[in-house]
Amino acid sequence: MSCHPSIANFDFASRVEIETRQEELGARNEEYLKTHPELQERLHDIMEAVLFHKPEDPLAFVQEQVKLHGEAQQDHVSAL
To answer: Is 54 helix (H, G, I), strand (E, B) or coil?
Structure first.
């Protein structure tokens, strides 16, 4: 078991408990992402757009991208 520097000062039992919890949380997060593949795809698209456009205010840009995507989804649903 490799010890993360932030938990190096804990005793062995505590480090094992922390690392076990981290592994469990990682597995739950991975399972969640598997059930929502569109999330990873959308985040990837947004990151590509940020890196392409290099906006002065990247957080505002991301917010706008999310808003535009939401509006596009609503338009798509309304068209059905």
So the answer is: coil
Q: Per the confidence metrics, is the pTM higher than 0.85?
A: no
Long-range contacts of 34-40 (CB under 8 A, 24+ apart): none
Instruction: Write out the DSSP string of 6-19.
Output: GGTTS-HHHHHHHH
Q: What is the DSSP letter of 4?
A: P
In the predicted model, what is the mean pLDDT of residues 6-12?
83
Q: And the tokens for 49?
A: 């757009």
Question: How open is the CA angle 40-32-44, to the nearest 5 degrees?
Answer: 5
> Under 8 Å CB-to-CB from 48, ≥6 apart: which residues?
none
Two tokens at 52? 């392409």
| Structure confidence at residue 54 as a pLDDT band (50, 70, 90) | very high
